[in-house]
Write a structure and sequence with these properties.
The complex is a heterodimer of chains A (253) and B (251). Chain A is an alpha/beta fold. Chain A has helices spanning 13-17, 31-53, 75-82, 93-102, 138-151, 165-173, 186-192, 215-222; strands at residues 64-67, 87-90, 108-110, 124-129, 152-162, 194-201, 206-213, 228-233, 245-250. Chain B has helices at 10-13, 28-49, 71-78, 89-98, 134-147, 161-169, 184-190, 213-220, and strands at 60-63, 83-86, 103-106, 120-125, 148-158, 192-196, 207-211, 226-234, 242-248. Classes of the chains: A alpha/beta (253), B alpha/beta (251).
């Protein structure tokens, strides 16, 4: 046996099924390859986490919200297999136009900088969110955690990614992309728990930037909103772009 | 991990389990439930990192098998592990009878193992690094790396803050817990905290160990890359949970 994370054609069939999204990851050397690989891996880890905590349940029958869908890196492979998420939101209007065409059943809608959203209390079995808390200020992040909890059904799962030491290292090593991170050490993150560097962004409604979270800090502080059952450090998938952590939370029944 | 539907059929197959004298094994139900849950967590980790591989064809070592809490459900489904070891003779004897086609032997408190370099596709070890001091832990990590094939996986559990909290509250028989006063901050600072001689008849070298996950990721990766740490993934020891460290030997 060799330990291999190579993807099979079956894994990536979704990418050929849907038209190519506009403006995929501009930073990557091979944008399409990176988009397909990361999307597949992220979806796989989300699927795995859902099945771990809701074993035997039918994902295709769940109410699922993707919070921060972008151009559908996760939503496309997810929808291809399960016709889920049945709701997805993002703050950027342009990508939503694309998603409305290719996966209208996912109901792509515009989100806001701060809560609330229009969904009723106790609406979802699963809310997942990749590369979203990695861009919010800690204060806004906390407000959204409460909102996620409100929208989850009792016993519902939140799967939220955060960045810790691997992405922080990447920030440090790419000053051309993120100069403001050059002086942030791992020990700074251990000491402070969460570090945000960003600025006022036009049309955004507030500060936007990059956020790194120490997994310990997340477990301690986020659990005050909703229990963090498990933290998969480096386990969110999508390693081509730097690994994120997957925080698995459950709204008490 | 929360597991609501467990395959516990293995428990009927392998007969009556001996009482190992540990709290978690007092009742058969807890033993069976934990064994099934731990096995599933391991199986899933392998499938995540080697999705196209067949576990039933791998060379697998259970390092610290005890009386087979994990080896039995594993064997029931895949006919694996191929090999197992433990420091306690009575466990090795019992499990050798229960799993006659598995090569089970008694290992020493220190390396080496009897195996050649690059023997195993997978080595898993549950509740073992949770009982060794840091020097022994480091020496055994090197040894696990040696016996793994290039590209092979090690799945090793550690205890962190949830278990520490439990240890602080837990009093051993008539004496105070050695963990009273050991704070989360101390573990963060030191990375690893070990308290020896916590168990009767096991000697100073056997105790209880708490690892800071961040320390494990950082320091163990110097020996073999820690790909992922699943904090609170292993629903083992009654009520508590352990972290699962997924390591892959470089090809």
């Amino acid at each position: 046996m060799t330990v291999s994370r190579d993807l099979t054609p079956e894994d990536t069939a979704w990418a050929d099924h849907f038209p190519e999204p506009p403006r995929i990851n501009m930073n990557a050397k091979k944008p399409r390859e990176s988009f397909v690989f990361n999307g597949t891996m992220l979806f796989r880890q989300l699927e795995r986490a859902i099945l771990d905590y809701k074993p035997g349940e039918d994902i295709a029958a769940m109410d699922i919200l993707e919070f921060g869908c972008g151009i559908g890196r996760c939503a496309l492979p997810f929808f291809y297999k399960y016709q889920r998420p049945n709701q997805c939101i993002d703050m950027a209007a342009k990508p939503l136009e694309f998603l409305r065409e290719v996966i209208p059943g996912a109901n792509p809608q515009l989100s806001r900088y701060e809560p609330p959203l229009d969904f009723a209390d106790d609406s979802f079995d699963v809310i997942y969110s990749i590369s979203v808390w990695t861009h919010m200020t800690p204060e806004v992040g906390m407000k959204w955690l409460h909102e996620v909890k409100r929208m989850l059904k009792p016993g519902g799962l939140a799967l939220l990614s955060t960045s810790s030491f691997v992405p922080l290292k990447r920030h440090r090593e790419h000053p051309e992309r993120s100069a403001e991170w050059g002086d942030v050490s791992d020990d700074d993150l251990r000491r402070e728990g969460v570090i945000f560097r960003g600025k006022e962004m036009k049309g955004m409604g507030g500060l936007y930037g990059c956020t790194v979270h120490n997994p310990d800090w997340v477990a301690e502080h986020w659990s005050q909103v909703m229990p963090v059952l498990e933290t998969r450090v480096n386990g969110a998938g999508g390693e081509m772009d730097g690994l994120q952590d997957l925080n698995i939370m459950q709204k008490p029944a | 991990m929360t597991v609501t539907e467990l395959d516990t059929a293995w428990a009927e197959k392998y007969g009556e389990f001996p009482n190992t004298g540990m709290n978690t094994n007092k009742t058969r139900d807890v033993f069976v439930r934990n064994g099934s849950a731990i096995f599933q967590a391991l199986e899933q980790a392998v499938m995540d990192y080697a999705p196209g591989s067949n576990l039933g064809e791998m060379t697998v070592l259970d390092f610290g098998c005890g009386i087979g809490r994990v080896a039995m459900p594993f064997h029931h489904k895949y006919g694996r592990p191929t090999h197992a070891c433990d420091v306690l003779k009575k466990y090795v004897d019992w499990l050798s009878d229960a799993l006659p086609d598995v090569d089970i032997h008694r290992s020493g408190m220190e390396p080496p193992l009897k195996f050649d370099d690059e023997t195993f596709d997978l080595v898993y070890s549950i509740s073992v690094w949770t009982h060794m001091d840091n020097d022994a832990g480091t020496a055994w990590l090197q040894e696990i790396k040696r016996v793994l094939k290039p590209g092979g996986m090690a799945l090793i559990s550690t205890s962190s803050y949830g278990q520490l909290e439990k240890h602080r509250k837990h009093r051993l028989a008539d004496r105070k817990s050695a963990w009273e006063g050991v704070t989360d901050e101390q573990v963060k600072e030191e990375g690893v905290v070990f308290r020896g001689n916590e168990f009767k008849n096991m000697g100073e070298a056997y105790g209880v160990t708490i690892h800071d996950p961040d320390y494990v990721m950082r320091e163990w990766s110097k020996i073999m890359p820690v790909q992922e740490t699943r904090i609170r993934n292993i629903g083992g020891a009654a009520g508590g949970s352990q972290d699962l460290n997924i390591m892959i030997k470089e090809a």
